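Onboarding guide, step 5: your first structure request.
Type a short instruction followed by the sequence, for example:

Predict the 3D structure of this protein.
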Amino acid sequence: MEGQQIKKKKQEDLLLEGKNFFDYYKKEVGKSVRHGERVILLSFQQIAEFSPMLSESIIEEPFSALAILENALSDIGLVKGLPRIRLSELPLSSKIKIRDIRAKHLDQLLWIEGIVRQASDVRPQVVNAKFECPNCGATLSVLQIDKKFREPARCTCGWKSSFRLISKEMVDTQRLVIEESPDSLDGGEQPRRINVFLQEDLVEPKMEEKTTPGSKIRVYGILKEVPVPLQTGSISTRFDIALEANNITPLEESFENLNIEDEEIEQILELSVDPNIYSRLSKSIAPSIYGFDKIKEAVLLQLFGGVKKKKSDGGFTRGDIHVLLVGDPGVAKSVLLKFIGTIAPKGRYVSGKAATSAGLTAAVVKDEFLKGWSLEAGAMVLSNKGLVAIDEIEKMNEQDRSSMHEAMEQQSVTISKANIQATLRAETTVLAAGNPKLGRFDPYTPIPQQIDISPALLSRFDVIFVIKDIPNKMQDEAIATHVLEEHKQEVIRDIIDPKILRKYISYAKQKVKPKLTEEAIEEIKDFYVRLRNQSVSSEMAIKPIPITARQLEGIIRLSEAYARLHLRNEVKREDAVKAIELLKVSLTQVGYDEETKTFDIDKITSGITAGKRNKILIIRELISKLESKLGKLIPMEEIEKSVEGKISSVELEDILTQLSKSGDIFRPKKGYIQKI
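The system replies with structure tokens like these:
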């Protein structure tokens, strides 16, 4: 009895203290009332400053303390009906990582930060039900706090049988799955998840837009246990945990969302004026790997990125730079990708062997709690405004890879499954690596024939680099020395600390939005026009296309990244020149046609160069002439005789095979062909 009296006295004191608080801050509280609603947003810091007793009670006994505060607010009359209090600015001591949550935190008020991995449909839920006793007619209210719908156990008159349901009080509810943000983890850690339940105003349409999968949010709430039913119908001794949300604050979704101290800003500014900053930054990319200067340069520019722009028609031009590495096994492609996945804020590393379209983009899954459908974000959505490193991309299923098309170019993921129609943001940079089909890269064979990637996907990469493992005494000695020195762990290199490198990139992306100067525009335009209109052999019926507008936009993005690297708000001519040089290196490796002695973008996308297209055209015309001369059956020896000295026998066989696949010809019998 004494304990109950003490508890009652404490509740009365809290109620009085709450009334005093609301009376003192009447004007401020009135302003925080949402229009037409009964929701009040209160600052915990403000409560703590006014009354330590109130703030301590909220932390220690959040359910009862918040209920008392809501009653106090109702008694004052500022809000019609029973209000709902939402808290903000909880103390840092209440912040906890998802992986650190334990049983001792149950029933405590705390806050977490993370990325929305999964979001269910919004469903109505019963929170209170009224029943009528058939024996005496009394009305009984039962709070619905469990998963199972509860009826009264008994009436005051002694009735224990069934009761008649009079009414139900229902609220909207939604379940989120929150995953730890990658930038809050140490390298190699698996991000942990927790269920978060939202109710009432927290699932209104305006709020729902801010909690879509891929969004980064801060959740204030009370940790509760969730019963786990067994197949027998009983309850397990082990419980799930979930956070019952009190308030949600959307965080700015930005690649550069890192806390940079004033001292670090000074250090960054000092680095930016270093004449060797470009070389130092480049060497700081995977310093354990020897060489790969141009590749590291491209990856470095990828981290800085270009500027996203809004078009006159309302669309957007992406600023993300996509890079593809193709090369022999054992040349450290995976090491480079893992380093970038670690160094980049919101960076994720995935392997093509274990990656699916759902894992990369988004999926619709069954919701076990609310019995509806949930939208679950994949790696590219979760890394919105970040980077995804995809290793062994050629081992992905072709249907899974096709899901990347929209994400890479349109920077969004559209889902139309079950009863869910949604578009998720995926402003994600892609760094991918793949191995050739036959193990080693063949410089004389086009990229599409060596790596199993569709032309549509290949065309979305701004630059493609080839890494070849060719024996060379001087280079081999340098690699061996570099690796052995790394093992000694005594080497001091002129590189930038990874922590500062992350901050440097973040600062550049946050503060620097470079614009093209007239000199840079002129340089890029001259290169584009000159390359597309260079002279070729007059005998060629089909003229090769060196580059397209897609490569032109790639040059612009690379130029902007160069300017960002130096913390300049203007893209100078020298930035454009460097970007053009980098693209030339890429085109020389994968897009140079030895036959026409020029760049041919078709060699990258379709694998069929303009020179080969001309030969196909010659053979097709020759077949038509021979048909009119010799009849439907055309001997192979006649075709070989006509093209002798112009087209080799191997090329001829390859062309005939392609014409056969395309349905132009077929082989009725050995040594003969016939048009279809």
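Each response can be followed by summary notes, for example: The chain is about 40% helix and 20% strand.
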